[in-house]
Design a protein that fits this description.
The complex is a heterodimer. Chain A has three helices and 15 strands. Chain A is mainly beta. Chain A has a 15-stranded mixed β-sheet with strand order 8-7-6-5-4-3-2-1-15-14-13-12-11-10-9. In chain A, 44% of the residues are buried. Chain B is mostly helical. Chain B has two domains: 2-77; 78-108. Chain B has four helices and no strands. Chain B is rod-shaped and about 90 Å long. The chains are: A mainly beta, B mainly alpha. Chains A and B meet through strand 2, strand 3, helix 2, strand 4 and strand 5 of A and helix 4 of B. Chain B: This is FUSC family protein. Chain B: It comes from Flavobacterium aciduliphilum.
Chain lengths: 253, 108
């Protein structure tokens, strides 16, 4: 399940990938997805994933709060309840992260993570269920981001000029590790995008140097090929199966 | 052979009932289809006088299929209102604000 959620978050993160021209991330944006998992050849809807943005202000600065929530549908709660929360607090202009938080509750198994970004140094605080809190400090590449802020940063990048088969490289921090990630353009396809109707989308393949994602070009993200670059469909393949996230509702875009 | 088929038919019919009761969505069709297959084979292997039991199993499997179809089309997937999770979100945001203010002090 942990791998499944990693893929959920990673794909969501890359979902927001493209944009013909740089644009700021709108505050008050809310994207809702239905998460399905392939059980014995049949797609079964398990959870709702919500991506939202808002502004958080301290006495000195304002931060863009990027929020990603995963909740199992009520019919599953009795059997395997999931309540996951991924958050990034970033500079509204550059999307450079200052704080990344992750709170995972999957069928009673819990884990909380907090990464504080001080220039190229991360101080991480990790607490797993029934284990002592672990604090660590490690240095990162200057361009490395957390998965949530990278997702939004990708939306500001220009991928329209990428040719089929061409890739872009990124680095993310996840589970106290720095992971290289590639995003490859596979072309364009028309996809149903919830309340947005039928949309032409960029079809992108996500690759990560980790054993979490499986197969070549089997982890896909479809982003609308307009200026909003809304992630409308994500397909993933992991060691224990396949699944997808389908956009059901988009507001504040 | 008939006994063997009946055992399979009963097993998959019971599994169908369990899957239909659980929130398995269309996955419940897997045991239902297998149940229907073995019920049909058991029915064919049975004498006319022995066909009452497979017929009853067929009715159960058929009802399971109807229940699964009904749940698929008429029960909408939704998330529960979770006050504990909502409170957790508020708390984590407040904590984040404190962490950010501490970070600002450290970077000064």
């Amino acid at each position: 399940m942990k791998k499944y959620l990693f893929v959920f978050s990673t794909l969501l993160i890359f979902c927001s990938f493209t944009s013909e021209k740089s644009k700021s991330i709108p505050t008050g944006e809310k994207l809702i997805y239905a998460g399905s998992y392939n059980m014995s050849g049949l797609m079964t809807q398990l959870a709702q994933v919500t991506l939202s943005t808002d502004i958080v202000t301290t006495s000195k600065k304002s931060y863009l709060h990027l929020n990603c929530e995963l909740e199992t549908f009520s019919k599953w709660d009795r059997f395997f309840k999931i309540r996951d929360l991924y958050e990034a607090y970033v500079d509204p202009a550059t999307l450079k992260p200052s704080l990344y938080k992750r709170s995972v509750d999957e069928g009673g198994w819990t884990k909380t993570e907090k990464y504080v970004f001080k220039n190229n140094i991360i101080t991480s605080t990790v607490k797993r269920k029934n284990k002592p809190e672990k604090v660590a400090t490690f240095s990162i590449n200057p361009a490395t981001q957390d998965v949530v802020s990278l997702m939004y940063k990708l939306r500001m990048l220009d991928v329209s000029k990428l040719k089929n088969g061409q890739s872009m490289g990124f680095r993310i921090v996840f589970d106290e590790e720095e992971i290289p990630v590639t995003v490859k353009m596979l072309g364009r396809e028309s996809v149903h995008a919830g309340n947005l109707g039928e949309k032409e989308c960029y079809k992108l393949s996500i690759g990560a140097k980790t054993d979490v994602l499986k197969g070549k070009d089997r982890n896909l993200i479809y982003l609308t090929s307009d200026s909003k670059k809304i992630p409308v469909l994500m397909k993933f393949s992991i060691p224990v199966g396949t699944g997808q996230l389908t956009l059901t509702s988009a507001s504040g875009i | 052979m008939r006994t063997f088929l009946l055992i399979l038919a009963i097993s998959f019919t019971l599994l169908s009932v369990v899957f239909a009761a659980l929130p398995m969505d269309t996955l419940a069709f897997a045991p239902i289809l297998l149940a229907l297959l073995f019920i049909f084979l058991a029915f064919k292997k049975s004498d006319v006088a022995q066909r009452k039991f497979p017929k009853r199993l067929f009715i159960i499997a058929y009802l399971c299929a109807l229940i699964v179809l009904g749940k698929t089309f008429f029960i909408k997937d939704k998330v529960a209102v979770d006050t504990q999770f909502e409170q957790q979100k508020k708390n984590t945001k407040q904590d984040a604000k404190k962490d950010l203010e501490q970070l600002e002090k450290d970077l000064e």
